[in-house]
């Protein structure tokens, strides 16, 4: 494909992504299958340009005019790549498969644009970041949306060094994660699921932030642990690693079904329970659990470095809806905690409304739950390195809740709040 044809294809894919709820990777793959003339080099170049536009969408949209694929691609060449207007004019030639020639309005805008890098988030998220991260907000935004995430895995009970050696022998550049004692980090795009170590259950794909959240909960041998929103079971496996008796619950049977093969592969055990829409199905567990772990449904904003397109599909109203659901779920799950037991709230979000606001709304209505300092939990946690214990304590600043972010911890964005039931 000519350079111009690649630009036109990227614009088309961006329009398809905007009209779809499917992950951007999937839309790109479907485009590739339907356009066989595009070789692997073309598909890679188109994919890179599409993701570059998605990661910088706010900035490109702010540059004015429309927000369709053509306009995003056009502004990206100037604003992000710093290309000369004359060169862009040659690429947008209108000849063959290249994009249609520039309009007068586009030409005028292009020559007036200021070139340089800046973070790019939807307006309501930027406002939240300014409030929560203060002077660091742009650095936080940049790390969340403009960088590619590595592939992290959790070593399933075995020796981390030995598994790292095994992955290196399979040509994957595995390095130990700094904060999780269970983790290995591989370069972005590594095909870990093609390795024998993955097939035989010695590693599970899990972001280091997710490992830290499960580790902070500190499940212990023989404890009764309820993983209340178990989903695909990523954290269930980590919670079960301690030898606790884990009951994994969810309202979606499809999600619980996915846990079964993961448990088998990891040679781990957990009971699976399907909840009714209002949390029915766990009456026998009331006031019995030593630990209830609530990995609540959320916007997933903490994972935007993996799915930048999701940032543009999220609305403030949806975040409000998640907040209401999170507070309701925490109230239901809290009933299962025995006196003296622990409750842990987790999201993979970086938004205050889903994190501090939801935790505060729960705590305000449940006086029997007392905050547990993150530093104290980190001291007793499983699976943290010494550096990890110190880093989490430092980030929490004496408090009972902590926010991990790509900028702070090099992980996906996770929030954890901890309580203990007193009576
Ligand atoms: C963030 S995901 C869990 C991810 C999972 N813990 C993991 O580590 O892979 C949230 C889960 O909450 C479940 N959920 C949604 N509404 C719920 C409810 N009312 N009660 C319990 N779980 C719910 C969803 O089906 C989803 O699987």
Rg from Cα: 23 Å
The CATH homology group name of the largest domain: Vaccinia Virus protein VP39
- Which structural class fits the helix and strand makeup? alpha/beta
Biggest β-sheet strands, sense, barrel: 8 strands, mixed
Low-confidence stretches are none
Mean pLDDT: 94
CATH architecture classification of the largest domain:
3-Layer(aba) Sandwich
Total number of helical segments?
19
Categorize the overall geometry.
Answer: globular
Residue share in helix = 40-55%
Beta-strand content estimate = 5-15%
Please give the number of β-strands.
12
How far apart the termini lie comes to 69 Å
Hetero compounds: S-adenosylmethionine
Q: According to CATH, what is the topology of the largest domain?
A: Rossmann fold
The structural domain count equals 3
Describe the 3D structure.
- The chain has 423 residues and is of the alpha/beta class.
- It folds into three domains: 3-112, N-utilizing Substance Protein B Homolog, Chain A (Orthogonal Bundle); 153-204, 2-Layer Sandwich (Alpha-Beta Plaits); 207-421, 3-Layer(aba) Sandwich (Rossmann fold).
- The chain has 19 helices and twelve strands.
- The strands form two sheets. Strands 5, 6, 7, 8, 9, 10, 11 and 12 form an eight-stranded mixed sheet that branches. The protein has a four-stranded antiparallel sheet with strand order 2-3-1-4.
- Helix 14 (253-266) links the parallel strand 6 and strand 7 (271-274).
- Helix 1 (3-18) packs across helix 3 and helix 8 packs across helix 9.
- It is globular.
- It binds S-adenosylmethionine.
- S-adenosylmethionine is lined by residues 228-235, 250-252, 255, 275, 279, 295, 297, 329.
